[in-house]
Amino acid sequence: MRVLRIKVKPNARKQEIREEADGSWVVQLKSPPIDGKANEELIQLLSKTFKLPKSCISIKSGAGGRNKLVMLNDD
């Protein structure tokens, strides 16, 4: 089980995920932060990137903000 610190940038031109030098992640999403659309896109992108089912990914804190703690249950 891993916990990722993620800074989300919604309404970006392209979808991108990158790891920063301090171990945190920056994720650019095309979706707007309305009605959970950006969170859905984030979970879908993490699922594809880490090759995990979406059911193994959950947002532990920050669901309504840009800074999030996301748990990956890869056991």
Automatic annotation (TrEMBL):
Q: What is this protein called?
A: UPF0235 protein ENR64_11430
Gene3D superfamilies xrefs: YggU-like (3.30.1200.10)
Similarity comment: Belongs to the UPF0235 family.
Q: Name one Pfam family in it.
A: DUF167
| Domain of life (superkingdom) | Bacteria
Organism source for this protein?
Oscillatoriales cyanobacterium SpSt-418
Q: Which InterPro entries match?
A: DUF167 (IPR003746), YggU-like_sf (IPR036591)
What NCBIfam families does its record include?
Answer: DUF167 family protein
Cellular component terms, GO, for this chain's entry?
Answer: cytoplasm
